[in-house]
Specification:
The chain contains 14 helices and 17 strands. The chain is α/β, with parallel strands linked by helices and about 400 residues long. The chain has an eleven-stranded mixed sheet, sandwiched between helices. The chain has a two-stranded antiparallel ribbon with strand order 1-2. A two-stranded antiparallel sheet has the order 8-9. Bound molecules: NADP nicotinamide-adenine-dinucleotide phosphate (NAP). NADP nicotinamide-adenine-dinucleotide phosphate binds next to loops.
């Protein structure tokens, strides 16, 4: 079947464009969505209702989203063929329309098959994985003061050990590389080693830190912390830290000051750094001292889940993958297949990712409205099963009922 026969662009709405380095968002932007596998079928309709209601509540008929369904995962396979879990026209649409949102996707199991999420990030060069972590009053948390943690994590998405450059122990490639390292660079590895490469570049580290600094400046936040393991890996992790300071100095000299300088910030953004293991302690012991964390890939992977768990919200933490003038907003959990189609799962992660998306469009009133509705709905103890089972005296709502409660609380 021809590609154009499958995707149906909306008849109304206009694409988001770029002018210089700024998004130009029309009053009715076309926004592609991927429903997602498993519980995506429950979460997406619930999320869409809440996002549409928030936009209508804030802007009446002046603004609206022209949703455009594109396919990935099982829905794509059933339409395009078993080997087409991520059709090229879906990627083209995500690229063309610049801002999109997706539910969770099953990672196909099998040798040589890459995660669809990783493929989307790489193909669209979505170099920053952005995870805001905040506590919503009433959500059960393992710590005494979850409200003190309110950070946004900018995690590098394209390199470090996630670049996927590795060879199995005993493979011809690993043996060859080991021989080269031993003969030419005097670096002998234990016999039969598997080998992975950890590339970290100045260009990609700098653009990540630049995005984190811009985020903090735009929101008048107090600090950006470069998280690294540079005491041990000096030329990769240590360089990440150095490049981060360089960006601040070369591009944001007037708006920033380093913690190490000892100068009073006087309204400027403080740039500081922490060694990764210490950052895990700090997140628990002095969370209020951090607002934006910029991290290489692997540190950020661990840290974002640890922080989300600290506020009790691993199942409802939002996320986005952002590049230059392009963003894919997504639920951070998986497809929870055993609950698919039962209308019981928590749509919080996808809805809060939608709020991030509204903010990215510059529709901050609608984004704030969603977050406030989320706060008051959880505070009222009207929640889905996953939170209800941890709270005393809560009322258990279905996924769709939770969305309706949010809409009432907008
Ligand atoms: P998962 O789908 O996140 O589910 C694990 C458990 O987390 C669920 O059984 C459920 O716990 C809880 N959970 C997740 N989402 C929830 C929600 N919205 N509301 C309430 N509870 C929720 O992890 P998985 O079982 O390891 O992965 C399943 C598939 O998802 C795999 O194919 C994996 O590759 C994929 N995946 C996709 C993404 C993505 O697309 N971004 C991310 C991670 C995993 P209880 O059973 O305790 O209620």
């Amino acid at each position: 079947m021809s590609a154009s026969a499958i995707l149906k662009e909306p008849k109304q709405g206009e694409p988001i464009t770029m002018k210089g380095d700024r998004l130009q968002v029309p009053s009715k932007p076309i926004i592609p969505f991927i429903e997602g596998d498993g519980i995506g079928v429950d979460l997406w309709p619930a999320s869409r209702r809440v996002l549409d209601a928030a936009v209508e509540k804030c802007y009446g008929k002046k603004k609206a989203i022209a949703w455009y369904e594109v396919f990935a995962g099982e829905k794509a396979q059933s339409r395009y063929g078993a080997d087409q879990a991520l059709p090229s026209e879906t990627l083209d649409a995500l690229k063309k329309y610049r801002v999109s949102i997706k539910g969770p996707l099953t990672t196909p199991v099998g040798k040589g098959i890459r995660s669809l999420n990783v493929t989307i990030r790489q193909k669209l060069d979505l170099y920053a994985c952005v995870r805001p972590v905040r506590w919503f009053e009433g959500v059960p948390s393992p710590v005494k003061h979850p409200e003190k943690l309110n950070v946004t994590i900018y995690r590098e998405n394209t390199e470090d050990v996630y670049a996927g450059i590795e060879w199995a122990a005993g493979s011809h490639e690993a043996e060859q590389l080991a021989a080269y390292l031993k003969d030419k660079l005097n670096a002998a590895l234990p016999e039969g080693s598997a080998i992975g490469i950890k590339p970290m570049s100045s260009k990609n580290s700098k653009r990540l830190v630049r995005a984190a600094i811009r985020h903090a400046l735009l929101r008048k936040l107090p600090s950006v912390t470069l998280v690294h393991k540079g005491n041990i890996m000096k030329y990769t992790e240590g360089a990440f830290k150095d490049w981060g300071y360089e960006v601040a100095k070369d591009e944001f000299a007037k708006q920033t000051v380093t913690e190490a300088s000892g100068e009073a910030p006087n309204g400027r953004l403080v740039i500081k750094d922490r060694i990764a293991d210490s950052m895990f302690q700090q997140a628990l012991l002095r969370p209020e001292e951090y607002s934006v964390l910029a991290t290489p890939n692997l540190n950020g992977d661990y840290l974002s889940d640890a922080c989300a768990a600290q506020v009790g919200g691993l199942g409802m933490a939002p996320g986005a993958n952002i590049g230059d003038g392009i963003g894919v907003f997504e639920a951070t959990h998986g497809t929870a297949p055993k609950y698919a189609g039962q209308d019981v799962s928590n749509p919080g992660s996808l809805i809060l990712s939608g709020a991030m998306m509204l903010e990215y469009l510059g529709w901050t009133e609608a984004a704030d409205a969603v977050i406030k509705a989320m706060s008051s709905t959880i505070k009222a103890k009207t929640v889905t099963y996953d939170l209800e089972r941890q709270m005393t005296g809560a009322q258990k709502l279905k996924c769709s009922e939770f969305a309706s409660a949010l809409i009432r609380n907008l």
